[in-house]
Write a sequence for this structure.
């Protein structure tokens, strides 16, 4: 199983820490000290979880001309900030690429959804039900966020990423990863508007951030060690660690536990904020062109709820 290509989409609007200083008195220095965040992206009017997912999909397909949209035989979408819970983000992507009668699956396990989505692909591949999958992760956090919340209102940013995953290796740059029929029909008739539910109602709240912090640090470090041990690798063999982009202090804590230098970690939280389950995938897109043959990449995540996971990738 291989990640053939990855691409990200970020809205153009930038929200700096000064916005929150003007809004509720939180200083730039205080936000940096607590979170590592300097700025974040915000979806424009008319943008949402679905539109960002579609843009990321268009970009990953454009970067993979050898894989036409018509060859995609599975779509898995991950988000906890849906624009619509019935005509899901995965259906919207299917509608956009115009491929019908293929499995379309939505997953939500908070910020761990990327790895759960890829695990679903693994199951479809193992059962012989698919061979070219599209995984899309997208978060419209600012649609749900309450900026007046001085506890967590400054944490969130918007963004999306898409990955093409194949059963066989197609290119030297691919990253290796170590009965029932379902079908979507989103492009047919009035599927996109026949039945919808759009639950954008209230802001994200995080009353027990310290508990999240403690468990995120513990679980991400532990599961990273576990996956390395299972594959007879040492922590020192890790070329890049891509953690969930929740808080720079969490990343530094995990690195300290593992004994990895900071330059081995991929971090985008300083200019993107917490982009939920899209954050690690965006980090992989940022790192893609730097990867060399022989590199080992670990993606490790933790999500509210709680959920966690790790994935080991090799560039052969």
């Amino acid at each position: 199983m291989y990640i053939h290509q990855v691409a990200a989409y970020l809205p153009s609007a930038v929200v700096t820490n000064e916005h929150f200083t003007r809004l509720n008195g939180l200083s730039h220095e205080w936000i940096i000290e607590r979170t590592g965040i300097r700025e974040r992206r915000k979806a424009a009017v008319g943008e949402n979880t679905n539109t960002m997912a579609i843009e990321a999909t268009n970009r990953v397909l454009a970067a993979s001309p050898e894989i036409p949209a018509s060859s995609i035989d599975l779509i898995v979408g991950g988000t906890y900030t849906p624009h619509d819970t019935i005509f899901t983000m995965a259906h919207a992507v299917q509608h956009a690429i115009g491929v019908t009668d293929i499995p379309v699956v939505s997953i939500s396990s908070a910020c761990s959804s990327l790895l759960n989505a890829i695990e679903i692909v693994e199951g479809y591949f193992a059962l012989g039900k698919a061979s070219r999958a599209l995984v899309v992760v997208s978060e419209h956090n600012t649609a749900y966020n309450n900026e007046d919340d001085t506890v967590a209102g400054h944490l969130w940013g918007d963004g999306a990423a898409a990955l093409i995953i194949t059963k066989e290796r197609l290119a030297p740059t691919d990253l290796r990863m170590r009965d029932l029929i379902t079908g979507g029909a989103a492009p047919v008739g009035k599927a996109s508007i026949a039945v919808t539910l759009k639950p954008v109602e209230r802001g994200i709240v995080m009353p027990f951030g310290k508990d999240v912090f403690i468990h995120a640090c513990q679980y991400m470090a532990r599961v990273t060690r576990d996956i390395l041990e299972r594959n007879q690798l040492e922590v020192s063999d890790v070329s890049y660690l891509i953690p969930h982009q929740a808080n720079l202090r969490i990343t530094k804590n995990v690195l300290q536990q593992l004994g990895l230098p900071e330059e081995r970690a991929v971090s985008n939280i300083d200019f993107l904020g917490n982009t939920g389950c899209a954050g690690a995938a965006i980090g992989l897109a940022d790192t893609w062109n730097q990867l060399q043959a022989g590199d080992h990449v670990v993606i490790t995540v933790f999500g509210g709820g709680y959920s966690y996971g790790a994935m080991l990738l090799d560039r052969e």
In short: The longest strand covers residues 132-140. The chain has two domains: 2-177, 209-315. The chain has a mean pLDDT of 93. The radius of gyration is 19 Å.
